[in-house]
């Protein structure tokens, strides 16, 4: 018998960025009452505390995870059983990587929504510190919205451009809202034109913009379903690619050398064994959205872009072998 799916609402951001207040206000809204019992998982404790007496509904169990070692599947399943919850709210620790949460989630816990918060008085400082910037980008990658509170501190074009660029390094689908002390909200409206033609018969990705294409393809998969793309890539031979497949991709840097990672898509190619690890190729391929185990924990139902090679040609290494996400 299949387990009941548990929707999870994930709130991420640095300590004292307003997560607790955001969640408290959400829980005080009667429209957020789904009729289900709610498990509130608190992974860090700041200066503000929850006031359950002001929640708009009952049936809320609050569980505190003070040690990352407690963040494991068995404990989460135990809390689900004890609370009888039908949904979960997670206030996540800003110093923990989001992937560590994904790895711990029971199979029936599904991230329904992810919202990020930031403090206008500190976000620029964090953005200019490599270690903190990396943690911020980690939280923004899966977020649908970043709420910057105390927005008076970043209410100028230079600050808005910096924050916009920071968010776009992590995601092209994350909206940005600026919340002011008087309760008013302004939304980011800086345009994001793509540096390639998505309506061309063959979408040719300039070598320096592979990172932007990769991010846009992950954020707006339907846009590329059934399209043909052509790009420069390195060969990654891995069993994770699946039968008769390899992963063409590039090494990409989020913000600093320590964050360089290989990103790419699984690609079916019957002659994949003829390709050598780290070879450079020019690939023309058809993109289709399909189930693939490589996307488990990353996309709903593990569905993502799967390529089918049309032509594979040897290529020269580019001048810069590492790309950026912006």
Along the chain, the helix and strand elements come as: EHEEHEHEHHEHEEEHEEEEEEE
Give the structural class.
Answer: alpha/beta
Shape: globular
Mean pLDDT rating: 92
> How many strands, which pairing sense, and closed or not: the largest β-sheet?
8 strands, mixed
- Count of distinct strands: 16
- Gyration radius from CA atoms, angstroms: 21 Å
Low-confidence stretches: none
Strand order of the main beta sheet, please? 3-2-4-1-5-6-7-8
Our estimate of the beta-strand percent is 25-35%
Count of individual helical segments: 7
Helix content: 10-25%
Please give the alpha-carbon distance between the first and last residues.
45 Å
In short:
The chain has 326 residues and is α/β, with parallel strands linked by helices. It has helices at residues 19-27, 73-83, 98-104, 123-127, 130-140, 157-170, 210-219, and strands spanning 6-13, 38-42, 60-64, 87-91, 109-119, 145-149, 175-179, 185-187, 203-204, 228-236, 245-253, 261-264, 267-268, 280-291, 303-314, 322-324. Helices cover 21% and strands 31% of the residues.
Account of the 3D structure:
With 326 residues, the protein is an alpha/beta fold. The chain contains 7 helices and 16 strands. A hairpin with a 7-residue loop joins strand 11 and strand 12.
């Amino acid at each position: 018998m299949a387990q009941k799916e548990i929707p999870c609402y994930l709130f991420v951001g640095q300590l004292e960025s307003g997560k607790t207040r955001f969640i408290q206000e959400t829980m005080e809204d009667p429209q957020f009452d789904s009729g289900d019992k709610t498990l509130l998982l608190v992974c860090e404790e700041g200066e503000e505390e929850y006031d359950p007496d002001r929640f708009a509904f009952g049936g809320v169990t609050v569980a505190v995870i003070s040690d990352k070692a407690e963040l494991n599947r068995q404990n989460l399943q135990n809390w689900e059983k004890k609370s009888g919850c039908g949904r979960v709210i997670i206030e996540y620790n800003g110093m923990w990587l989001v992937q560590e949460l994904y790895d711990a989630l029971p199979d029936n816990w599904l991230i329904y929504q992810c919202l990020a918060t930031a403090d206008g008085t500190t976000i620029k400082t964090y953005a200019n510190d490599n270690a903190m910037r990396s943690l911020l980008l980690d939280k923004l990658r899966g977020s649908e919205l970043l709420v910057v509170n105390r927005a008076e501190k970043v209410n100028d074009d230079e600050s808005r451009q910096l924050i916009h660029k920071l968010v776009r390094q992590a995601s092209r689908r994350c909206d940005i809202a600026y919340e002011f002390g008087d309760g008013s909200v302004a939304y980011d409206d800086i345009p994001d034109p793509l540096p390639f033609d998505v309506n061309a018969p063959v979408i040719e990705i300039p070598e320096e913009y592979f990172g932007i294409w990769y991010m846009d393809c992950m954020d707006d998969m339907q846009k590329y379903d059934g399209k043909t793309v052509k790009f420069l890539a390195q060969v990654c031979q891995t069993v994770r690619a699946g039968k008769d497949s390899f992963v063409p991709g590039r090494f990409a840097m989020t913000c600093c050398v320590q964050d360089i990672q290989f990103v790419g898509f699984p690609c079916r190619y019957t002659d994949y064994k003829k390709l050598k690890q780290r070879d450079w190729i020019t690939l023309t391929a058809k993109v289709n959205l399909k189930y693939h185990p490589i996307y488990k924990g990353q996309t709903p139902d593990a569905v993502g872009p799967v390529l089918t090679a049309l032509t594979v040609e040897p290529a020269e290494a580019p001048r810069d072998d590492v790309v950026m996400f912006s």
